[in-house]
Design a protein that fits this description.
By secondary structure, the chain is mainly α. It is built from five helices and no strands. α3 crosses α5.
């Protein structure tokens, strides 16, 4: 490595909160689609450290850019797989 390269600094990027995803989600949950796994990643990020969030499907759509239909289909599958606990709340 040259001295010129060694003196250059990497730009600082603030990524904010991040959500660690267990490798097992990628490697062992073969029955889940890529879209379902991506929703899990988004939910993990939204729920933060306490692991709880209360969002409507419409709000999840706005926050994740995943279609409401895909969210509605995926949440029960993630719940059945044991990755999340999801309940429908009555208004």
């Amino acid at each position: 490595m040259s001295n010129h390269t060694a003196t250059q600094q990497e730009p600082k990027v603030d990524f904010g909160f991040y959500a660690p995803i267990p490798r097992i989600v990628r490697t062992e949950y073969k029955m889940l689609t890529v879209h379902e796994k991506w929703l899990y990643v988004c939910l993990k990020d939204l729920c933060g450290k306490n692991g709880t969030c209360f969002r409507t499907v419409a709000t999840l759509h706005e926050e994740t850019d995943i279609s409401t239909g895909m969210i509605s289909e995926s949440i029960p599958k993630l719940h059945k797989a044991g990755l999340i606990h999801a309940e429908k709340k009555r208004r």
